[in-house]
Design brief:
Length: 184
């Protein structure tokens, strides 16, 4: 197994992949519940392993240095598909010794691959300047399972700001697929 520039001397003992989907449930007055599929979330790749033999603790330190380096990297496993991922957890599971270190790890798949149609300010304009974004505001086309909150998170704003910028959206809690939401 490999992540960024670190290659495990032998593969971890266990490796699991957890697939997640975000779903929200809201009570409808005088009725039942409305459930909304918010779409795929990130995959979680986790496992545990050990370094054994002379230099085991030094090998763990190398892995810890990779953990401390920021940003996503390619996670390559000999069986599973490669993923762009963030190293989010590294845990010692016993008192380390120079010849034996047991550990757990967790990676989260980078969610960029799930982000639908993100447009930059002034997209589609010839000049792309400051005035262009005022003339052609950035928009987002609603996809299945999206809410004002999820769209706001994708564009580094708040749902309240999006609602303010979209007075023509009569029911901001019930967006339709294909509906266009103004971002800026």
């Amino acid at each position: 197994m490999r992540f960024k520039d670190y290659t495990w001397p032998h593969n971890p003992r266990t490796y699991a992949i957890e697939y997640r989907r975000e779903v929200d449930a809201r009570k409808v007055p005088f009725a039942h519940y409305y459930m909304q599929d918010l779409g795929l979330a990130w995959r979680v790749m986790s496992g545990e392993g050990e370094f054994v033999g002379e230099g085991a603790y030094d090998e763990f330190r190398k892995l810890a240095n990779v953990f401390y380096s920021p940003g996503a990297g390619m996670l390559i496993h000999p069986v599973w598909q490669p993923s762009k991922a963030h190293f989010v957890k590294l845990e010692l599971t016993q008192q380390p010794r120079s010849d034996y270190v047991a550990y757990r790890f967790e990676f989260w798949e980078d969610t960029e691959r799930h982000a639908p149609g993100v447009y930059s300010k002034g997209a589609g304009t010839a000049s792309g300047g400051a005035n262009a974004s005022a003339l052609n505001p950035a928009t987002h086309t609603v996809r299945a399972g999206e809410t004002m909150t999820t769209i706001a998170a994708q564009h580094s704003t708040t749902a309240a700001e999006l609602i303010k910028k979209n007075p023509k959206v009569r029911q901001p809690n019930l967006l339709r697929i294909g509906q266009v939401v103004v971002i800026n």
